[in-house]
């Protein structure tokens, strides 16, 4: 098993987790020394903050400060002092603000405390290093176990990587063929984006597949796809292909693809190809897969064609499975006349000569060199001259291949049409059954929804009437009591019986209204207008037979009509519709609310460099835009400067209705140069 070599590091892991928290920081209790150092560090920081805050509160010192904040500069805690009051507070200047109006000053009374903090921080770092080194030593003592565990984890990682890669390419597990069949159904190049699927097959008794067709038609990509998928399968990977793919297990796999010419090695294109093929022949061990791209190219076409035939046939006699591409007529003739050699051609569009990237088996294809040269922009006179230079035999062969290609296309077209008609008939039959079921379900759903809507409206009406009656009863009782008090009993009070009678009468009236409402909605009463015998048209008011619903026709189809029933859409047969008189109700008005584009809302607004009026205007617009977002905490960046911007923004925020609270940002977030604002929910 992949995890068989893994060892347990439970003790070391527990010790590590005890001393290091999930965020990677060493915890205080990792050692007594670290705990003591950090306690002293916290005390010194508290003492430092208290001392600095005394400057903020003191009457004699606060007047020299630009802002009532403590900030940090170069690792030292400092005050923000007005530049003109540099001598007001003795101390060390650690920098100035961007505008030069403020100084970052460390008071002399805090220098020693700051020094202690720096020393303690150095001691803390050294103690943390010692703790981490001790934890490392615990693992170092078991270095051999650790190496084996890492190897096991690596193996598991590789397995997971294979699984994820297979999933990403939608791979399938190919079958292993025992008869030497090489068949890739709808294979896709695993490294290309949006590749065109191609079927590549060499089925016994054939052991050779010769692929021909136009330039830029996809021959080389198909060859690379075949080689890559064969190696992926033997590496235990799923392959990007369709079910039904099957591959043999090869002992050797060779490929001669592309231009391997080398100036340094004094190799031409032809020499590089032949050198590579000779090496393949020496090392070949069957069963073998041999991929040859443009075999015999790079030299005289006649000699190259003869050499290509001899090379392919040599590998065939040695028992290899060969997939080769070529433009040579000699190889096309060889494929057509030799037992055990299959041919396939990449197709092209007849009108544009653009490649289709689809393989057609059974006949060689045309190279279309002249047609493609013309499509790629070569001077038409050059193409015409090339046509004149074709020999009579070559022209006759090209025409013969073109006729075969046209016949194959015609047969394929007829086959596709027949298959399409058959699928259309099956689909139409299935749609008829589905439509019958859908109509039944739609009628049932519509009835149920209509009843639910009526019941909901009736309950709502009853609730509203009850509320009104309760309110009237309360007011009537109050008025009666007031009248009785004023007349000392000389006038009769309003009895609860009277109000009860009013309530009963009101409820009876509501029930009566509901009854008539239901009769109108369900069509149980006689129609106010006589029915019309003509066929419905768009805009007619109709009654849906069987449902008793009143609707308006919105569109007509063959034997059916689309209807609007109180804002709900349905379709019904024309035979089930009866036209009634009167105009259809006025169409509902749709109101579209369109928001004007707004500036992108962020969590920060920088107003440094703005005047007070500009800053207030931008801040107001910024907060208004936040109403359309879920952002509730934002920052206003105003800098230090003279403090005028911050004071103006403070007054603005105090009066703004959307602001829940605001405060100066912590030192690590900008300190006195930034105000953090929290908005109301």
How would you concisely characterize the structure shown here?
Helix content is 47%, strand content 19%.
Report the CATH C-level class of the largest domain: Alpha Beta
| End-to-end distance | 57 Å
Count of individual domains: 5
What is the share of helical residues? Answer: 40-55%
Strand order of the largest sheet: 10-11-12-8-13-14
Helix and strand composition category: alpha/beta
Give the averaged pLDDT, no decimals: 81
Q: So, the CATH homologous superfamily of the largest domain?
A: P-loop containing nucleotide triphosphate hydrolases
Q: What fold name stands as the CATH topology of the largest domain?
A: Rossmann fold
- By DSSP, the count of extended strands is 23
What is the CATH architecture term of the largest domain? 3-Layer(aba) Sandwich
* Low-confidence segments: 261-266, 489-503, 521-531, 582-601
Shape: extended
Rg, rounded, reads: 45 Å
Number of helical elements: 15
Strand content: 15-25%
Largest sheet properties? 6 strands, mixed
Describe the protein's architecture and organization.
The chain is an alpha/beta fold. The chain has five domains: 10-140, MutS, DNA mismatch repair protein, Chain A, domain 3 (Orthogonal Bundle), CATH 1.10.1420.10; 175-367, P-loop containing nucleotide triphosphate hydrolases (Rossmann fold, 3-Layer(aba) Sandwich); 409-522; 526-584, Roll (SH3 type barrels); 604-679, 2-Layer Sandwich (Ribosomal Protein S8, Chain: A, domain 1). The chain contains 15 helices and 23 strands. It has helices at residues 10-19, 32-57, 59-62, 111-140, 143-168, 219-234, 269-283, 301-317, 329-337, 369-375, 380-389, 392-487, 496-522, 612-625, 644-655; strands at residues 65-73, 76-82, 91-96, 102-107, 175-176, 182-187, 198-202, 208-212, 246-247, 252-256, 288-292, 321-325, 341-348, 355-361, 541-544, 549-556, 560-565, 568-573, 577-580, 604-606, 633-637, 659-664, 674-679. The strands form six sheets. The protein has a six-stranded mixed beta sheet, sandwiched between helices. It has a five-stranded antiparallel beta sheet with strand order 18-17-16-15-19. Strands 1-2-4-3 form a four-stranded antiparallel beta sheet, with helices on one face. A hairpin with a 2-residue loop joins strand 17 (560-565) and strand 18 (568-573). Helix 12 packs antiparallel against helix 13 (496-522) and helix 14 crosses helix 15 (644-655). The chain starts with 9 loop residues before the first helix and ends with a strand. The model is unreliable at 261-266, 489-503, 521-531 and 582-601 (pLDDT under 50).
């Amino acid at each position: 098993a992949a995890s068989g070599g893994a060892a347990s590091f439970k003790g070391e892991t527990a010790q590590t987790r005890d001393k290091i928290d999930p965020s990677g920081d060493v915890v205080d209790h990792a050692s007594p020394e670290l705990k003591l150092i950090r306690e002293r560090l916290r005390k010194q920081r508290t003492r430092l903050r208290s001392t600095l805050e005394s400057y903020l509160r003191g009457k004699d010192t606060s007047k020299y400060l630009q802002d009532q904040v403590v900030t940090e500069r170069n690792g030292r805690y400092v005050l923000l002092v007005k530049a003109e009051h540099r001598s007001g507070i003795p101390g060390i200047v650690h920098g100035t603000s961007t505008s030069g109006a403020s100084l970052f000053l460390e008071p002399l009374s805090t220098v020693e405390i700051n020094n202690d903090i720096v020393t303690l921080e150095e001691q803390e770092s050294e103690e943390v290093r010692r703790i981490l080194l001790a934890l490392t030593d615990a693992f170092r003592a078991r270095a051999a176990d650790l190496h084996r565990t890492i190897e096991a984890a690596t193996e598991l990682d590789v397995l997971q990587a294979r699984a994820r890669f297979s999933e990403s390419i939608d791979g399938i597990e190919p079958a292993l063929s025992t008869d030497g069949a090489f068949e890739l159904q709808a294979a896709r190049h695993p490294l290309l984006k949006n590749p065109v699927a191609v079927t590549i097959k060499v089925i016994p008794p054939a052991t050779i597949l010769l692929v021909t067709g136009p330039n830029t038609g996809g021959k080389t990509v198909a060859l690379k796809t075949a080689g890559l998928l064969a190696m992926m399968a033997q590496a235990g990977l799923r392959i990007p292909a369709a079910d039904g793919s099957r591959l043999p297990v090869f002992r050797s796999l060779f490929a001669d693809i592309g231009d391997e010419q080398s100036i340094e090695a004094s190799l031409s294109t032809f020499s590089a190809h032949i050198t590579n093929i000779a090496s393949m022949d020496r090392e070949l061990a069957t069963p073998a897969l041999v991929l040859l791209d443009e075999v015999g190219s790079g030299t005289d076409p006649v000699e190259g064609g003869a050499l290509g035939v001899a090379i392919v046939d040599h590998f065939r006699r040695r028992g290899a499975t060969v997939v080769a591409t070529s433009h040579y007529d000699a190889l096309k003739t060889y494929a057509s006349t030799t037992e055990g050699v299959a041919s396939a051609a990449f197709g092209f569009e007849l009108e544009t000569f653009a490649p289709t990237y689809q393989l057609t088996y059974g006949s060689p294809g045309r190279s279309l060199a002249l047609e493609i040269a013309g499509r790629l922009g070569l001077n038409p006179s050059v193409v015409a001259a090339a046509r004149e230079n074709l020999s009579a035999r070559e022209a006759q062969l090209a025409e013969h291949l073109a006729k075969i290609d046209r016949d194959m296309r015609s047969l394929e077209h007829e086959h596709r049409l027949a298959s399409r008609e058959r699928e259309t008939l099956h689909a139409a039959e299935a749609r008829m059954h589905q439509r019958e079921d859908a109509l039944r379900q739609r009628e049932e759903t519509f009835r149920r929804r209509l009843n639910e809507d009526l019941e909901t409206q009736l309950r709502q009406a009853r609730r509203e009437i009850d509320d009104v009656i309760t309110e009237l009863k309360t007011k009537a009782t109050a008025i009666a009591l007031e009248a009785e008090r004023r007349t000392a009993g000389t006038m009769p009070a309003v009895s609860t019986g009277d109000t009860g009678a009013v309530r009963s009468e009101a409820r009876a009236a509501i029930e009566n209204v509901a009854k008539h409402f239901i009769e109108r909605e369900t069509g149980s009463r006689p129609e106010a207008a006589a029915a019309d015998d003509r066929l419905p048209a768009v805009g007619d008011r109709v009654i849906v037979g069987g449902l008793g619903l009143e609707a308006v026709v919105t569109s007509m189809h063959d034997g059916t009509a689309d209807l609007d029933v109180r804002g709900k859409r349905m379709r019904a047969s024309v035979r089930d519709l009866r036209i009634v008189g009167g105009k259809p109700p006025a169409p509902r008005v749709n109101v579209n609310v369109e928001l004007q584009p707004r500036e992108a809302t962020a969590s920060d607004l920088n107003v440094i460099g703005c005047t007070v009026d500009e800053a207030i205007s931008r801040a107001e617009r910024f907060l208004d835009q936040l109403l359309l977002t879920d952002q509730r905490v934002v920052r206003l960046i105003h800098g230090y400067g003279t403090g005028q911007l911050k004071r103006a923004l403070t007054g603005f925020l105090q009066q703004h209705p959307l602001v829940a609270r605001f405060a100066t940002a912590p030192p690590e977030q900008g300190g006195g140069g930034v105000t953090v604002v929290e908005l109301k929910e």
